[in-house]
Amino acid sequence: MYNMHELVKISLENEMDLILANKRSMKLGEFTGLSLSAQTTFATAVSEVARNTIESKRNGSLTLCIEINKRDKYIVARIKDNQPENEKYKEGLAYAKRLVNKYNVSSNDDETSIELFYYVAPPFKIDIKKLDEWRTLFRNEPPVSPYEELKRKNEQLQDLSEKIQKSESQYKTLTNSLPLTIFTLDNDGQLIYANEWLLSFTGLTIEKLNTTKWKTVVFEEDYNSFLLLLNNDITRGTITMKIQARLKNNISGDYLWHQVSISPLKNTGDEILYWIGYIVDIHAQKVFEETLKDNIELKHAQTQLKQNQQVLEDYITELNRSNSELQQFAFIASHDLQEPVRKLLYYSDYLLEAYKNTLDDKGIKYLATMHSAAIRMRELISDLLSFSQVNKESIIFKTVDLNKVIVDVKQDMELVIEEKKANLQVHNLPEITGDERMMHQLFSNLISNALKFSAKDIAPVIQVLSQEKDGYFEIEIRDNGIGFRTEHLPDIFKLFQRLHPKKDFEGTGLGLAICRKIVELHNGNIKAESAPGKGSSFKILLPVKQSESVHESENTFS
Amino acid sequence: MNQKILLADDDEEDWEILLEAFKELNAEHAIHFKENGREIVTLLESTVEKDFPSLIVLDLNMPVLNGTETLKILKTNKKFRHIPVIIYSTSINPFEKDKCLLLGAERYITKPVSFKESIETARFFLNYEVQN
Prior knowledge:
A: Heat Shock Protein 90, Beta-Lactamase, 4 domains, 5-stranded antiparallel sheet, B: alpha/beta, Rossmann fold, 5-stranded parallel sheet, 43% helix
């Protein structure tokens, strides 16, 4: 049953015929299942061409047909007249051909035929029976007055427009009632439409959002990725794009995490018409994720910290161990070294005493050198021994009267004091909490230094003064000796530090280092002031009260 | 009681040094050397009280029985504890010194570093009872 099937023929002579042509065309569309708008489109195309024919009085006619070929079905309007084609004639066709799927024009000297084809969607079935049915219907269709027809047309138009309005308002209501921000963008990233959620969230109008390019809404750090979305270079893509950005809530002023997504809407020619976008609040989810991440990081940091602490503790244990080993080593070494040195001393002395008559001068000189070297070595060992014994473990805190300590020291040095004709002036000194033996060593070292570095030909005057201030006793040992340059100050308390050549002043370089160690073990401080030829002053700060922990150690050792 | 000094020291050079000094004082018969504390204790245990030495001198660092152990045995024994004991060491370790005095040693002296000092030490030992 391929081919063209004629259903009805209408002559085209006056306005009345035009209306009928339109009405019959609409009807045919209706029969073949076209939508109201498609019916109107087809009927309009037919009317345009038919009007031309009527206006130019060509004795035309309209034949409505169905074309069924192998693949497709069309409704067809064939408009014929008895004149050849001319320019004026084309006016109606020019408009009509845009409304239909295809058209066909044939003409000769005394006839022109125009066929307009409108596509019928495949699911619609057409058979012989239907065609006959439609022919009958067309035949029985009552002719209508043009006024009635016009009125009906207007009603149809009104109806269509109402439907469109209703559909649009439904869409708006829908988008506004969803807890979702919906918008559309043109290809330049400009907002075309935004639902109320977006406007109330941002507190801005579409125009404002477009002119500011959302700058006041999007969090600074996220703005670049947001711009990529808005910018056309990227959105020329044909797929849905999503970003996460913090958007500012107009009411609270908070920036909350949102997901912004846009998808292209294309026409049948695959061209992008515009972009449909939505924005969803994902703040809670994001915060949860971040918290989880922070938590993991925190746990990691805690583990790391614990490990570091363990390492540190291990180091400290190791350090304490090696420190106490070193102390022990120093003690044992110096103790055991004393024995051979003593022998050296004894035998060189014995030789110098008992064999001085059998030795020549050179022998005596060398032997004396050896003897004095052995003396220095013994002193060094003895100082090392002292130094190794000045430590936390061996400290015994008691109340110590410093006046008594000075008396003992003075007694020890009686010979030197007498020899140098020194004047040791001791002002009233306090009682302190400390280790008696270490205090003895401290003042012994300082006073013996003062005696040792006395100026030539001037009788040494050594003063020991004391005052209390800010919870500390300040004890000063002042002399009128040779002094030293202040540039040496930072070094003088260092181990084995000597300022003078051995031949000028005897000493091991341990004395002041021992002093500093003692003072520090007593939670105090020692410093020196001096200038060459101006004498020296050593100031010791010792706390009036030792802390609790220190007193505890008293119990341990007493 | 005899004028007899019992000295325990494992260092034979030190014996010689002291013997030299005692010889200078013509008193070499007064000093008797033992190698360690054990020898002194053993000797005393087999000696009648009238033959006890007038003075015991102990080095600290000795094999078998060291100075402080010997001192403990001597001073906790009723029979021996009246015999004066002098600790005789190379250096003065203040802790050792305190400990020894606490255990009952009469004195704690250092070994001589010169011939002159060795004679003084010998004289000190000989005259110990007279001094005290």
